[in-house]
C-alpha cells in the first residue's frame, strides 16, 4: 500500500503539470484505462535477457500480465499534433527471461512474484494527418519515467533468494501505438513502449518493454454558444447556429447562412444570395428601384411602357417613345424647318438643313466688295491721327448702308500706311485707324460680332512709297468679306 500511495502521488503531480496547458482544440483531454504486460527479455541484454526483439511476441514464456485494470493514462492535446500524457501502471513480475544452459525449461522465473510500479511522462506525436485518416491514428512517443520492482525481487548480485529488495530506477522511454476511434470520443488503444533503464540489471535496473491495451475516451470539448458544435469545428463559435452551416446561423430560415446571405433578416432566394424578389421580375428587391412593380433588368427592375429605354419614373413622356438624351421625349422642331431643335443652330428661325437650321447667308458679290473698297479708299484721316476729316462721313454712311443689306455676312476692316515714319509708329497708326472705322460702323447699327479690325502698318503697299502719289495710295482702309 505504501508503494501504491507513492504511485498515486506521482500521478497527481504529472496530471497537475498537464493542467498547466490551455485548452485550444476540440476534446483536448483523453483518459485511457486498460491492462499492461511487462517483458524484460527482448532488450539486448545478457542472460537471462535476450537480443533486441528476440521472441517479441512470446506471450506465454516472457510476458508478465496482471489480469485486472492495471494501467491509467491521462493525456492533454498541446497543439500541432503533439500531446502530453502521464501514465501510471502496476504489475506482478514472475518471468525474467531464459538461460541457454537449461533447454528443457528455458523460462526463468522468480521464486516469489515481484510487485511492479511505474510512472511515466511522454510527449506523443500523432501521424493521423500523415496517413490522412480520422479513424486510425498511429502515433510516436518519447519520454521518461521511474519504475519500482520490489518484494522478494531477485535482481542484482546482492540479493539472495527470499531477501526483500526495494529497487527503483529511472527509464528513458520510446513508444509506438495507435488509437482506433469507434466514435468521435471512444477508441481502442494499443501501445508498445521500450523503457531503457539507467541502472544495470546487476544493480537492480530492469530495461524492459511494456505493452498495453485499453479504451481511450476523449472529453473536454468547448461549445461556447451551446449549439452542440464544438468551437474547434464551429465556424461561428460565439453565435448559436446550425450543423448544416458548421455552427453558423440562418436568421431568416431561407437555407442560406447569414455570412453568405445579403439579406440575413429577410427570407429570400439562393439565386439572389438570400434576398427576396417581391415583384417577380428577376431583380432582387435590394437592387430593384421599383420593387413592387415588375420591370426590366436593364432598368433596375422598373417598367418602360413606351419601350424607349427610359424607365417610366425618369421618362418625361412615359406614353411617347423618345431618346434617352431627351429624357424619353421626342425631339421638337419649333421653327418647323425640318432640323430638330437639338441640331438647329437657329431653333427660332426657319432655315435649311444644309445651313444647320439657319437661313442661308446672302453674301455680297465681288462687285459689291469692289464698291465697298472704292468707298473705303476715300476715307480721309487727320494727318498722323485716327480721327476722320469732315468730308469722310458721307463715305462712312455709304459703307454702313451696304453692310446693312447683308445682315448675315461678316467683314474684316484692314488699316494700311505708307513708309513715312518708324515702322512701330505706322503699325500703331494702322491699328487705330482700322478700329476707328469699325467703331463708327458699330455706332451706326452694324453688329460688332460681324466685324474684325486689323492694322498691317507699312507691310503691304499697293504702290511705290518713293512718290507722293504712291504714298497716298498706300494710306488706305480696305473692307473684305470674312469667310
Descriptive key words:
483 residues, alpha+beta, Porin, three-stranded mixed sheet, 7 helices
Write up what this structure looks like.
With 483 residues, the protein is an alpha+beta fold. Among the domains are: 2-219, Porin; 366-482, OmpA-like domain (60s Ribosomal Protein L30, Chain: A, 2-Layer Sandwich), CATH 3.30.1330. It contains 7 helices and 12 strands. The protein has helices spanning 2-18, 59-62, 128-131, 366-376, 393-404, 423-443, 468-474, and strands at residues 29-39, 64-65, 71-79, 82-98, 107-126, 136-150, 166-181, 186-197, 208-219, 410-416, 451-455, 476-482. The strands form 2 sheets. It has an 8-stranded antiparallel β-barrel with strand order 1-3-4-5-6-7-8-9. Strands 11-10-12 form a 3-stranded mixed β-sheet. Helix 4 packs antiparallel against helix 5 (393-404).
Quick recap:
The chain is of the alpha+beta class and 483 residues long. The protein has 7 helices and 12 strands.
User: How many beta-strand elements?
Assistant: 12
Biggest sheet, in brief? 8 strands, antiparallel, barrel
Number of helices: 7
Q: Name the beta content range.
A: 25-35%
Order of helices and strands: HEHEEEEHEEEEHHEHEHE
CATH architecture of the domain at 2-219: Beta Barrel
Oligomer: single chain
Helix and strand layout, with pairings?
Layout: H1 2-18, E1 29-39, H2 59-62, E2 64-65, E3 71-79, E4 82-98, E5 107-126, H3 128-131, E6 136-150, E7 166-181, E8 186-197, E9 208-219, H4 366-376, H5 393-404, E10 410-416, H6 423-443, E11 451-455, H7 468-474, E12 476-482
Parallel strand pairs: 10-11
Antiparallel strand pairs: 1-2, 1-3, 1-9, 3-4, 4-5, 5-6, 6-7, 7-8, 8-9, 10-12
Helix pairs in contact: 4-5
